[in-house]
Amino acid sequence: LTLTDEGVPSAHREEVIAGWVSVLMALKGAADFGVDLRNHDPHRSWDQGYCDN
User: 18-44 burial by CB neighbour count: b if 16+ within 10 A, else e?
Assistant: First the structure.
């Protein structure tokens, strides 16, 4: 599995890094522990400051 991001403006870099951490944590939880760490609450989205993937 290879994940990449390209062409991210420097102004958005911190937000993109936080998004990647969220993705990698969800993958780790699923692969190693068989749990679903995704957010299922529509009121807690990325726009409200929650990690959501």
Answer: ebeebeeebeeeeeeeeeeeebeeeee
